[in-house]
Design goal:
With about 160 residues, this protein is mainly α. It has a single domain (about 20-25, about 35-155), classed as Orthogonal Bundle (Ribosomal Protein S7), CATH 1.10.455.10. Helix content is about 55%, strand content about 10%. The chain contains 6 helices and 2 strands, in the order αααββααα. It has helices at about 20-30, 35-55, 60-70, 95-110, 115-130, 135-145, and strands spanning about 75-80, 85-90. Helix 2 (about 35-55) crosses helix 3 (about 60-70) and helix 3 (about 60-70) packs across helix 5 (about 115-130). It is globular.
Length: about 160
Amino acid sequence: MRRKVKNRNVVEPDFIYNSQKLEKFINYIMWSGKKETSRKIMYQALDIIKEKTGNSNPLEVFDLALKNAGPLTEVRSKRIGGANYQVPREVRAERRLALAMRWIRDAARNKKGSPMYIKLADELIAASKNEGTAIKKKEDTHKMAEANKAFAHFAW
């Protein structure tokens, strides 16, 4: 069994909204160490969310989007007697958050034709309404886990 990780890297909260999740998401957006660029993208996206939703606190939309995009179950491959089985597993809270952030970021990056902050704002708004590419990815993961429920007894 794995040992517990003792020294998790805890990120400092961002300086405008004082949120650790937001700072972690800024780190997810970052490319080639350009943190200031990713900060600008995120804060511009939050301004657009504030305009489009009419919500004075865009962090509520952001948190709801992360909550909606995070999967509850996933499949993990396990080798038993020469065969590989896709075994459904429950997702831990840290991994759920990491997957939600990654899927929202990738969904925004894969859209074409507009600046990143607009694509990111659109994806966050869509995820908060249980729509969009990140939510589709979550639903596909849940379907896969449901389809392989017969192998749940192999869970370790």
